[in-house]
Amino acid sequence: MDKKSLGSSTAAVTDDPATQSLSPKGRRTRAQLLTAAEKVFSDLGFHTARVQDIAKAAGVSHGTFYTYFESKEVIFRTLVESLAAEMVNTRSLVRGDPIAAVLDGVRLYVESYSRSRAMMIQFEHTAMIDDEIHELLRTQRDIAIARAERSLSRLQEAGHASESLDIFYTARALVAMTGRLCFEWFAFGEDLDQGAVVRVLTETWLRAAGMSPDAVTTEMDRLFAQA
Protein backbone atom coordinates (compact mmCIF):
# COMPACT_ATOMS: atom_id res chain seq x y z
CA MET A 1 0.00 0.00 0.00
CA ASP A 2 1.25 3.48 -0.91
CA LYS A 3 2.77 5.05 2.21
CA LYS A 4 1.34 8.44 1.23
CA SER A 5 -2.13 7.03 1.82
CA LEU A 6 -1.32 6.16 5.43
CA GLY A 7 -0.92 8.17 8.59
CA SER A 8 -3.15 11.16 7.87
CA SER A 9 -6.26 9.92 9.63
CA THR A 10 -4.25 9.01 12.73
CA ALA A 11 -2.86 12.49 13.26
CA ALA A 12 -6.06 14.08 14.53
CA VAL A 13 -7.00 11.23 16.85
CA THR A 14 -3.78 11.61 18.82
CA ASP A 15 -5.38 14.77 20.26
CA ASP A 16 -8.62 12.95 21.05
CA PRO A 17 -10.08 13.61 24.53
CA ALA A 18 -9.62 9.89 25.19
CA THR A 19 -5.87 10.50 25.36
CA GLN A 20 -5.97 13.22 28.02
CA SER A 21 -5.78 10.81 30.96
CA LEU A 22 -2.91 8.85 29.43
CA SER A 23 0.76 9.24 30.25
CA PRO A 24 3.10 10.40 27.46
CA LYS A 25 4.09 6.76 26.95
CA GLY A 26 0.43 5.74 26.85
CA ARG A 27 -0.34 8.36 24.22
CA ARG A 28 2.58 7.13 22.13
CA THR A 29 1.40 3.53 22.39
CA ARG A 30 -2.16 4.48 21.46
CA ALA A 31 -0.85 6.45 18.47
CA GLN A 32 1.26 3.43 17.42
CA LEU A 33 -1.83 1.24 17.54
CA LEU A 34 -3.82 3.68 15.42
CA THR A 35 -1.06 3.95 12.82
CA ALA A 36 -0.69 0.17 12.75
CA ALA A 37 -4.45 -0.33 12.51
CA GLU A 38 -4.70 2.03 9.56
CA LYS A 39 -2.06 0.04 7.69
CA VAL A 40 -3.56 -3.34 8.60
CA PHE A 41 -7.09 -2.31 7.62
CA SER A 42 -5.77 -0.78 4.40
CA ASP A 43 -3.77 -3.90 3.50
CA LEU A 44 -6.12 -6.65 4.69
CA GLY A 45 -9.55 -5.05 4.80
CA PHE A 46 -11.81 -4.67 7.81
CA HIS A 47 -13.16 -8.23 7.86
CA THR A 48 -9.84 -10.03 7.39
CA ALA A 49 -7.89 -7.86 9.85
CA ARG A 50 -7.50 -9.25 13.37
CA VAL A 51 -6.55 -7.66 16.67
CA GLN A 52 -3.36 -9.74 16.73
CA ASP A 53 -2.41 -8.34 13.31
CA ILE A 54 -2.75 -4.80 14.63
CA ALA A 55 -0.84 -5.55 17.84
CA LYS A 56 1.97 -7.22 15.90
CA ALA A 57 2.23 -4.31 13.45
CA ALA A 58 2.36 -1.88 16.39
CA GLY A 59 5.02 -3.93 18.17
CA VAL A 60 2.91 -4.47 21.30
CA SER A 61 1.32 -7.46 22.98
CA HIS A 62 -2.20 -8.67 22.26
CA GLY A 63 -3.21 -7.67 25.79
CA THR A 64 -1.81 -4.16 25.39
CA PHE A 65 -4.23 -3.54 22.53
CA TYR A 66 -7.18 -3.99 24.91
CA THR A 67 -5.75 -1.42 27.31
CA TYR A 68 -6.58 1.22 24.70
CA PHE A 69 -9.38 -0.20 22.55
CA GLU A 70 -12.19 -2.66 23.27
CA SER A 71 -12.14 -4.32 19.86
CA LYS A 72 -11.07 -3.97 16.24
CA GLU A 73 -14.48 -2.41 15.56
CA VAL A 74 -13.77 0.36 18.08
CA ILE A 75 -10.33 1.20 16.68
CA PHE A 76 -11.74 1.17 13.14
CA ARG A 77 -14.51 3.57 14.14
CA THR A 78 -11.97 5.82 15.86
CA LEU A 79 -10.02 6.03 12.61
CA VAL A 80 -13.01 6.68 10.37
CA GLU A 81 -14.49 9.27 12.75
CA SER A 82 -11.27 11.25 12.43
CA LEU A 83 -11.22 10.72 8.68
CA ALA A 84 -14.84 11.84 8.30
CA ALA A 85 -14.10 14.99 10.30
CA GLU A 86 -11.09 15.78 8.11
CA MET A 87 -13.08 15.34 4.90
CA VAL A 88 -15.65 17.97 5.89
CA ASN A 89 -13.33 20.35 7.75
CA THR A 90 -14.19 23.91 6.67
CA ARG A 91 -11.78 25.84 8.90
CA SER A 92 -9.39 26.44 6.01
CA LEU A 93 -12.14 27.63 3.66
CA VAL A 94 -12.03 31.29 4.56
CA ARG A 95 -11.69 33.11 1.22
CA GLY A 96 -14.42 35.65 0.53
CA ASP A 97 -14.43 35.02 -3.22
CA PRO A 98 -17.28 32.51 -3.80
CA ILE A 99 -15.60 31.07 -6.90
CA ALA A 100 -12.32 30.59 -5.04
CA ALA A 101 -14.29 28.99 -2.20
CA VAL A 102 -15.63 26.33 -4.59
CA LEU A 103 -12.09 25.57 -5.72
CA ASP A 104 -10.91 25.41 -2.09
CA GLY A 105 -13.71 23.01 -1.15
CA VAL A 106 -13.04 20.69 -4.07
CA ARG A 107 -9.29 20.76 -3.44
CA LEU A 108 -9.76 20.00 0.28
CA TYR A 109 -11.94 16.98 -0.49
CA VAL A 110 -9.69 15.57 -3.22
CA GLU A 111 -6.49 16.07 -1.21
CA SER A 112 -8.03 14.52 1.92
CA TYR A 113 -9.33 11.54 -0.04
CA SER A 114 -5.97 11.09 -1.75
CA ARG A 115 -4.02 11.18 1.53
CA SER A 116 -6.28 8.54 3.10
CA ARG A 117 -7.26 6.67 -0.05
CA ALA A 118 -6.97 3.15 1.35
CA MET A 119 -8.96 3.94 4.49
CA MET A 120 -11.58 5.84 2.49
CA ILE A 121 -12.19 2.76 0.36
CA GLN A 122 -12.49 0.62 3.51
CA PHE A 123 -14.75 3.27 5.05
CA GLU A 124 -17.16 3.12 2.12
CA HIS A 125 -17.10 -0.67 1.86
CA THR A 126 -17.67 -1.21 5.59
CA ALA A 127 -20.50 1.34 5.66
CA MET A 128 -22.54 -1.08 3.57
CA ILE A 129 -22.64 -3.70 6.34
CA ASP A 130 -22.04 -1.81 9.60
CA ASP A 131 -24.83 0.48 10.83
CA GLU A 132 -22.59 2.78 12.89
CA ILE A 133 -20.10 3.26 10.05
CA HIS A 134 -23.01 3.78 7.66
CA GLU A 135 -24.29 6.57 9.90
CA LEU A 136 -20.85 8.19 9.96
CA LEU A 137 -20.70 8.11 6.17
CA ARG A 138 -24.20 9.55 5.93
CA THR A 139 -23.31 12.35 8.35
CA GLN A 140 -20.21 13.17 6.31
CA ARG A 141 -22.35 13.28 3.15
CA ASP A 142 -24.97 15.50 4.78
CA ILE A 143 -22.32 17.99 5.92
CA ALA A 144 -20.77 18.00 2.44
CA ILE A 145 -24.19 18.66 0.88
CA ALA A 146 -24.89 21.51 3.30
CA ARG A 147 -21.53 23.05 2.40
CA ALA A 148 -22.28 22.64 -1.31
CA GLU A 149 -25.66 24.33 -0.87
CA ARG A 150 -23.97 27.28 0.85
CA SER A 151 -21.38 27.53 -1.93
CA LEU A 152 -24.05 27.51 -4.64
CA SER A 153 -26.09 30.11 -2.74
CA ARG A 154 -23.05 32.37 -2.50
CA LEU A 155 -22.43 32.01 -6.23
CA GLN A 156 -26.06 32.90 -6.87
CA GLU A 157 -25.94 35.94 -4.56
CA ALA A 158 -22.79 37.18 -6.31
CA GLY A 159 -24.43 36.88 -9.72
CA HIS A 160 -22.27 33.96 -10.86
CA ALA A 161 -25.04 31.34 -10.81
CA SER A 162 -28.35 31.12 -12.61
CA GLU A 163 -31.29 32.60 -10.72
CA SER A 164 -33.30 29.49 -11.62
CA LEU A 165 -30.66 27.10 -10.24
CA ASP A 166 -32.18 24.27 -8.19
CA ILE A 167 -29.69 24.37 -5.33
CA PHE A 168 -31.22 21.40 -3.47
CA TYR A 169 -30.75 18.86 -6.27
CA THR A 170 -27.64 20.39 -7.80
CA ALA A 171 -25.76 20.20 -4.49
CA ARG A 172 -26.61 16.52 -4.12
CA ALA A 173 -25.62 15.71 -7.69
CA LEU A 174 -22.27 17.50 -7.39
CA VAL A 175 -21.38 15.92 -4.05
CA ALA A 176 -22.25 12.46 -5.38
CA MET A 177 -20.22 13.05 -8.56
CA THR A 178 -17.16 14.27 -6.64
CA GLY A 179 -17.25 11.40 -4.16
CA ARG A 180 -17.78 8.74 -6.81
CA LEU A 181 -14.98 10.05 -9.00
CA CYS A 182 -12.54 9.92 -6.09
CA PHE A 183 -13.68 6.43 -5.09
CA GLU A 184 -13.29 5.00 -8.59
CA TRP A 185 -9.99 6.83 -9.13
CA PHE A 186 -8.33 5.02 -6.24
CA ALA A 187 -10.39 1.81 -6.08
CA PHE A 188 -9.58 1.06 -9.73
CA GLY A 189 -6.04 2.46 -9.56
CA GLU A 190 -6.42 4.98 -12.35
CA ASP A 191 -3.36 7.09 -13.13
CA LEU A 192 -4.88 10.57 -12.90
CA ASP A 193 -3.21 13.91 -12.27
CA GLN A 194 -4.52 15.38 -9.00
CA GLY A 195 -4.28 18.98 -10.17
CA ALA A 196 -6.24 18.16 -13.33
CA VAL A 197 -8.90 16.35 -11.28
CA VAL A 198 -9.30 19.38 -9.00
CA ARG A 199 -9.56 21.77 -11.93
CA VAL A 200 -12.05 19.70 -13.94
CA LEU A 201 -14.25 19.06 -10.91
CA THR A 202 -14.26 22.76 -10.04
CA GLU A 203 -15.11 23.69 -13.63
CA THR A 204 -17.96 21.17 -13.56
CA TRP A 205 -19.33 22.67 -10.33
CA LEU A 206 -19.25 26.18 -11.79
CA ARG A 207 -20.84 25.17 -15.08
CA ALA A 208 -23.55 23.27 -13.22
CA ALA A 209 -24.25 26.50 -11.33
CA GLY A 210 -24.89 28.26 -14.63
CA MET A 211 -21.60 30.00 -15.45
CA SER A 212 -20.70 30.12 -19.14
CA PRO A 213 -17.77 27.99 -20.35
CA ASP A 214 -15.76 31.12 -21.22
CA ALA A 215 -16.35 32.65 -17.78
CA VAL A 216 -15.36 29.40 -16.10
CA THR A 217 -12.13 29.17 -18.09
CA THR A 218 -11.25 32.78 -17.29
CA GLU A 219 -11.85 32.29 -13.56
CA MET A 220 -9.92 29.02 -13.44
CA ASP A 221 -6.94 30.58 -15.22
CA ARG A 222 -7.03 33.45 -12.72
CA LEU A 223 -7.19 31.22 -9.65
CA PHE A 224 -4.59 28.71 -10.80
CA ALA A 225 -2.23 31.56 -11.72
CA GLN A 226 -2.46 32.70 -8.09
CA ALA A 227 -1.71 29.24 -6.70
Characterise the protein shown here.
This protein is mainly α. It has two domains: 3-71, Arc Repressor Mutant, subunit A (Orthogonal Bundle); 88-226, Tetracycline Repressor, domain 2, CATH 1.10.357.10. 73% of the residues lie in helices and 0% in strands. It is built from eleven helices and no strands. It has helices spanning 8-13, 24-44, 51-58, 62-68, 72-87, 98-115, 117-127, 131-157, 167-187, 194-209, 213-226. Helix 5 runs parallel beside helix 8 (131-157) and helix 7 (117-127) crosses helix 8 (131-157). It is elongated. The model has no long low-confidence stretch (mean pLDDT 89).
List keywords for this structure.
2 domains; 11 helices; Tetracycline Repressor, domain 2; mainly alpha; Arc Repressor Mutant, subunit A; 73% helix; 227 residues
What is the strand and helix layout of this fold?
Blueprint: H1 8-13, H2 24-44, H3 51-58, H4 62-68, H5 72-87, H6 98-115, H7 117-127, H8 131-157, H9 167-187, H10 194-209, H11 213-226
Helix pairs in contact: 2-3, 2-5, 2-7, 5-8, 6-8, 6-9, 6-10, 7-8, 8-9, 9-10, 10-11
Organism: Aeromicrobium piscarium
InterPro entries: Homeodomain-like_sf (IPR009057), HTH-type_TetR-like_transc_reg (IPR050109), HTH_TetR (IPR001647), Tet_transcr_reg_TetR-rel_C_sf (IPR036271)
Biased composition (Polar residues): 1-23
